[in-house]
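Q: I'm teaching a short session on how sequence maps to structure, and I want students to see two examples side by side rather than one. Could you give me a first protein with its sequence written out and its structure tokens following it? Keep the formatting plain so it prints cleanly on a handout.
A: Of course. Example one:
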Amino acid sequence: MGASVFIDGEAGTTGLQIYDRLKDRADIDLIRLDDARRKDAKARADALNAADVAILCLPDDAAKVAVALIESPTTRVIDASTAHRTDPAWVYGFQEYAEDQRQRMSGSTRIANPGCYALTSIAMLHPLVSAGLLPKDWPISINAVSGYSGGGKAMIAAFEGGDAAQTSAAIYAYGLGLKHKHLPEITRWAGLGHQPIFSPHVGRYHRGMLVEAPLPLWALPGRPTVEAIHAALQAHYEGERFIEVAPIGPPSEVAASNPPNGKDALDPESLNDTNRLRLHVLTNPDRDMVIVAGLLDNLGKGASGQAVQTLNLLIGADEAAGLEA
């Protein structure tokens, strides 16, 4: 008999992706509700309390309500919403964050799944802050672009709605009020003293994400070298299966080393359908500045794949089970 898992919000974008990764696994017994009972509070409460692991793929307020329905002390929760990502009572669900993070996650019943922009930004910045190469009070800027699936059903409809589509834009900037919902999460877990300036964009493609943080090495205290930045990232993620650090190189050299189809270039779609995150340290000929960049699938390592990786950890399965590495 496998671990019992209930996906609350299975019909949503993230929930469907998680279901697809779990439906054929012999070590997982999925608890499912039909359409008529999906919004029935008692049916949901029964499913949540019967599950070994409940995965919440809900809006923030609904996720909080779902947690309140859980009375069983043995039900473990992976919350994919923003609701608990900075809550000190919850463990941050990013295995590669620190040496003891897997241990902390394994010992918890409440785990907050990271956001896609946030996980990528934190993966780039946290090792540099921890290594003392990037001051926590440094004025960080983060530029990013994501496929429209990151916005869920409403944004997918805005791009794919046929005659009812709400936009014909190839790309657009949003979050211009500088209050993006991932900012508290990035600030907390990257170890920053101030919120970064975050400039997200949505492109006319379904999935895939590119996040960039420019760093003027000449202005940083101690003037760290390109090699020091790269070495800190390599040391932090050494031996990890899902996070890799590419060789140092300017964009022209990176592109020149890639196949003609650009599969491994700085193309936000290049890691789609995987659970991988790839980090780049891009520099210029004068080597006095870098762009630290991260690539992932916003529905993979940025959402559903990360949740499944965490589920695997909680039930004692291989972390790569059900995932395309």
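Q: Perfect. Now a second example for contrast.
A: Example two:
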Amino acid sequence: MILSLHQPQYLAWIGYFHKILKSDTFVFLDNVQYKKREYQNRNRIRTKNGVQWLTVPVVKSPDRFIKIKDVLVDNSQDWAARHWKALYLNYNHSPYFKEYSDFFHGLYGKKWEKLLDLNIYIIKGINKFLNINKDIYLESGLGINNTKTARIIDICGRLGADTYLSGMGGKAYLEEDLFMKAGLRLKYQKFSLLQYPQRYMPFIPNLSILDLLFNCGKESARILEEC
């Protein structure tokens, strides 16, 4: 059984869903440190002028090591209305925007207290659009206490995985020998994004999965499979 894991991201990019697709089981790393200026509370969409960042404001915490599961959304700012407006203005004329607009209009109409809940809701919703049906767990519910590579090995053991699928970035920090000692196979994600039709030229890669969905609709699942 192949297991992969990742921090929950906001409007995650295409490679994130490719990793889930290529796994049997996926774990949200919600019990690790929240990092600013990454993709846990922001992502990029396509505009006629290039790209635009959509950022969910979060409540500043006195704890610099706050865990992802504890991060609160700053609802003193009208961020949800801004994000919906940005999606509507930039994708309303895309071929498949209307197929998915109810879902996104609905989520931006809710009040989200925790960033984790918002991100997981979006990821699970997009999984359904892409016909991705995998076993999904929260790390915080697994009782894992180790860190770094040992944390991953413990998660694999807890869920009965025999293979861990890592992103290519894992080559820089994983202690590969520990997987072999634990009787686990370590694989690295092979992901090569195909160019798909975008509303504007030139093609810009590595955007939020929304760009693929709104431009390609149900074909998005096939494109993802072939990446």
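Q: What should students look for in example two?
A: Point them to this: The first strand starts at residue 2 and ends at 6. Also worth mentioning: The helical segments are 14-21, 79-91, 97-107, 115-129, 148-159, 176-181, 209-216, 219-226.
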